[in-house]
Amino acid sequence: MSAEPDIARPLMPKTLFDKVWDRHVVAANQDGYQLLYIDRHLLHDGSFEAFNELRRRNLPVRRPDRCFGTPDHFTPSSNVRLEDIQNSHQRDHVIQLHRNAKDIGFACFDLSDPRQGIAHVVGPEQGISLPGATVVCGDSHTSTHGALGALAFGIGTSEVTQVLATQCLWQKKPKAMRISMEGRLPYGVTAKDLVLALIGRIGTAGAVGHVIEFAGSAVRALSIEGRLTMCNMSIEAGARAGMVAPDVRTFEYLRGRSYAPAAAEWDRSVAAWNLLATEPEAAFDREVSFDVEGLLPMVTWGTSPEQVQAIDGCVPDPADTRDPLRRRSMEQALDYMALTPGIPLEQIPVDRVFIGSCTNSRIEDLRAAAAVVRGRMAKVPTWVVPGSRPVQAQAEAEGLDRVFTDAGIEWRRPGCSMCVGINGDTGRPGERIASTSNRNFVGRQGPGVRTHLMSPSMAAAASVAGRLTDVRRLLGAGR
Predict the structure, then answer these.
(1) Which of 144-153, 371-380, 416-425 is least confident?
(2) Is the CB of residue 348 less than 8 Å from the CB of residue 467?
(3) Average pLDDT over residues 263-279
(4) CATH 3.30.499.10 residue ranges in the chain?
(5) In whole angstroms, how far apart are CA 236 and each of 168, 208, 254?
(6) Which residue of 73, 279, 283, 327 pairs with 13 in a disulfide if CB–CB is 3.0 to 4.6 A?
């Protein structure tokens, strides 16, 4: 007697995250961990320990064709020559990345390559990061690539070693969170302001244990570069990753890029990418929504991205907070930042300005900053650091470098620079820096340095005003 056929269970509607995750599961353990196949592995000059471990264990790199390297953390923004790296150990790490690429056979955009830059700028602009792909890198802001519909997240050194050796990675599936942003962004408000406002609302632990899908009319209206900024800082909200469903903007951005599909393969890929969007009835573990139309340009006042205010506000008073732990955190932040409660943010002077980082160093960011400084002069030392050599070349072709230098601003070379501050690009103790980077914790930009996070246009406004200021005043659209 034959067994009765199983009654097929209806397929549950899936989110974008579910679709990408499920398609990459190779195996599963009873403890809840699943083995994911990794499509793209980005490497930088800080990846040397993983390669050393492979050599100690006599293990080959399983898929060199899925690996892409670029030096960014230790490279000097003053020039692009190895001899300009003062720290001999850091210089050796840059050299080692090049040698590993040559010996193993993976692509590396080194200091002599016109494609060199910050890994999270290079990946999207070269078409390495694609919709539906899994992307990892030994850097927390790998979440940036999720703006293209990829599942992208940072990994530790031991995990970098595992991916190099196996092209797979054991992970426990995070929960899914949808953040719906509706409405039209007001004049002078950017993707950076949007994500800072979000972090201010839900906190730096608001998305812990989740992968965020950013959705809603405000997100759909963002350029790809704006989406890259937003997904970049999903990490500062505590998320494992941030994602945006691929759409026509995504496809047009990727079309013709070096590592993107071409010809008939392009058409097949777009057809597949169009199926990645979250299905209407798919369930999320958590949902957050808010209207963006009342947002103003944002600036941080403390030592965490969640300590943020609209530029028309004042430094908050810890005494107004009932939570004793939060009050103590605010007091410590104000002490480090040397700020007094009640001071209008626009009265806070700055000593230096940094425009760059994997958050805000793309061509749209530089155009926005140049629009503010054009015809004006910087009142404080200011650096503009493009995110890659192609960004640098595009900016110079458009004359943006001359706009900056005519304003007395220093036009520098691509790299992480003052964002991470491990290559000599740091502020001086006690300096207050208006920065377009992603983190403002104690000492991030150098010992004793006080960092205020903001958008490129807001940083440019601080440069020409010498203080925090509402950029809309300079753009002719005040309050």
Answers:
(1) 416-425
(2) yes
(3) 97
(4) 16-286, 298-474
(5) 26, 10, 26
(6) 279
